Amino acid sequence: MRANAEDYMTLALLAERMEAVGRTEEAKLLREKAAVELGHAKAIFETLVKAEGLQATAKELADVEDLQHVSEYNVVAMKAKEEGHPDIEKMLCSFAEQEKGIAEVLKRTAKAL
Ligand SMILES: [Fe+2]
Protein backbone atom coordinates (compact mmCIF):
# COMPACT_ATOMS: atom_id res chain seq x y z
CA MET A 1 0.00 0.00 0.00
CA ARG A 2 2.84 2.42 0.76
CA ALA A 3 4.33 1.92 -2.70
CA ASN A 4 0.93 2.70 -4.24
CA ALA A 5 0.56 5.77 -2.03
CA GLU A 6 4.01 6.99 -3.04
CA ASP A 7 3.27 6.43 -6.72
CA TYR A 8 -0.08 8.22 -6.36
CA MET A 9 1.59 11.23 -4.78
CA THR A 10 4.42 11.36 -7.31
CA LEU A 11 1.98 11.11 -10.22
CA ALA A 12 -0.24 13.82 -8.72
CA LEU A 13 2.76 16.12 -8.20
CA LEU A 14 3.97 15.48 -11.74
CA ALA A 15 0.47 16.29 -13.01
CA GLU A 16 0.51 19.57 -11.09
CA ARG A 17 3.86 20.46 -12.60
CA MET A 18 2.72 19.57 -16.12
CA GLU A 19 -0.45 21.62 -15.61
CA ALA A 20 1.66 24.57 -14.45
CA VAL A 21 3.64 24.56 -17.68
CA GLY A 22 0.52 24.25 -19.81
CA ARG A 23 0.78 20.54 -20.65
CA THR A 24 -2.88 19.89 -19.90
CA GLU A 25 -3.21 16.62 -21.80
CA GLU A 26 -0.20 15.05 -20.07
CA ALA A 27 -1.48 16.32 -16.72
CA LYS A 28 -4.84 14.65 -17.38
CA LEU A 29 -3.18 11.33 -18.25
CA LEU A 30 -0.97 11.50 -15.14
CA ARG A 31 -4.03 12.24 -12.95
CA GLU A 32 -5.82 9.23 -14.43
CA LYS A 33 -2.84 7.02 -13.55
CA ALA A 34 -2.67 8.59 -10.09
CA ALA A 35 -6.32 7.60 -9.62
CA VAL A 36 -5.43 4.00 -10.54
CA GLU A 37 -2.69 3.96 -7.89
CA LEU A 38 -5.11 5.44 -5.35
CA GLY A 39 -7.58 2.69 -6.21
CA HIS A 40 -4.90 0.07 -5.58
CA ALA A 41 -3.99 1.69 -2.26
CA LYS A 42 -7.66 1.77 -1.19
CA ALA A 43 -8.16 -1.89 -2.07
CA ILE A 44 -5.08 -2.92 -0.12
CA PHE A 45 -6.06 -0.65 2.81
CA GLU A 46 -9.51 -2.25 2.96
CA THR A 47 -7.91 -5.70 2.88
CA LEU A 48 -5.54 -4.75 5.72
CA VAL A 49 -8.34 -3.28 7.81
CA LYS A 50 -10.41 -6.40 7.27
CA ALA A 51 -7.51 -8.64 8.31
CA GLU A 52 -6.04 -6.61 11.18
CA GLY A 53 -8.71 -4.10 12.18
CA LEU A 54 -8.80 -0.32 11.92
CA GLN A 55 -7.20 0.24 15.31
CA ALA A 56 -4.14 -1.91 14.51
CA THR A 57 -3.80 -0.23 11.11
CA ALA A 58 -3.83 3.25 12.70
CA LYS A 59 -1.44 2.16 15.44
CA GLU A 60 0.97 0.66 12.94
CA LEU A 61 1.08 3.91 10.97
CA ALA A 62 1.56 5.85 14.22
CA ASP A 63 4.61 3.71 14.98
CA VAL A 64 6.01 4.29 11.48
CA GLU A 65 5.54 8.04 11.83
CA ASP A 66 6.90 8.18 15.36
CA LEU A 67 9.77 5.72 15.23
CA GLN A 68 10.83 5.85 11.61
CA HIS A 69 9.93 9.13 9.94
CA VAL A 70 10.89 11.41 12.82
CA SER A 71 14.35 9.87 13.10
CA GLU A 72 14.84 9.80 9.33
CA TYR A 73 14.13 13.54 9.10
CA ASN A 74 16.40 14.22 12.07
CA VAL A 75 19.28 12.21 10.59
CA VAL A 76 19.05 14.04 7.26
CA ALA A 77 18.67 17.38 9.08
CA MET A 78 21.93 16.74 10.98
CA LYS A 79 23.63 15.85 7.72
CA ALA A 80 22.39 19.12 6.19
CA LYS A 81 23.75 20.96 9.24
CA GLU A 82 27.14 19.28 8.90
CA GLU A 83 27.25 20.21 5.23
CA GLY A 84 26.44 23.87 5.96
CA HIS A 85 22.81 24.05 4.83
CA PRO A 86 20.98 25.66 7.79
CA ASP A 87 17.89 26.40 5.68
CA ILE A 88 17.47 22.72 4.77
CA GLU A 89 18.22 21.68 8.36
CA LYS A 90 15.50 24.03 9.63
CA MET A 91 12.97 22.72 7.08
CA LEU A 92 13.69 19.07 7.93
CA CYS A 93 13.53 19.72 11.68
CA SER A 94 10.11 21.30 11.19
CA PHE A 95 9.05 18.28 9.13
CA ALA A 96 10.21 16.00 11.97
CA GLU A 97 8.04 18.00 14.41
CA GLN A 98 5.08 17.65 12.05
CA GLU A 99 5.66 13.90 11.83
CA LYS A 100 5.45 13.76 15.64
CA GLY A 101 2.13 15.58 15.40
CA ILE A 102 0.86 13.07 12.84
CA ALA A 103 1.90 10.19 15.11
CA GLU A 104 0.10 11.79 18.06
CA VAL A 105 -3.13 12.18 16.10
CA LEU A 106 -2.90 8.58 14.88
CA LYS A 107 -2.34 7.30 18.44
CA ARG A 108 -5.33 9.31 19.71
CA THR A 109 -7.41 8.03 16.79
CA ALA A 110 -6.39 4.42 17.47
CA LYS A 111 -7.33 4.79 21.15
CA ALA A 112 -10.71 6.24 20.23
CA LEU A 113 -11.57 3.19 18.12
FE1 LIG B 1 5.46 10.38 7.74
TrEMBL record:
What the entry lists under Gene3D superfamilies is as follows: 1.20.1260.10
Could you tell me which InterPro entries the record lists for this protein? Ferritin-like, Ferritin-like_diiron, Ferritin-like_SF
Q: Which SUPFAM superfamilies match?
A: Ferritin-like
Q: Which domain of life is it from?
A: Archaea
Q: Which residues form the Ferritin-like diiron domain?
A: 1-113
Q: What is this protein called?
A: Ferritin-like diiron domain-containing protein
Q: What is the lineage of its organism?
A: Archaea, Thermoproteota, Thermoprotei, Sulfolobales, Sulfolobaceae
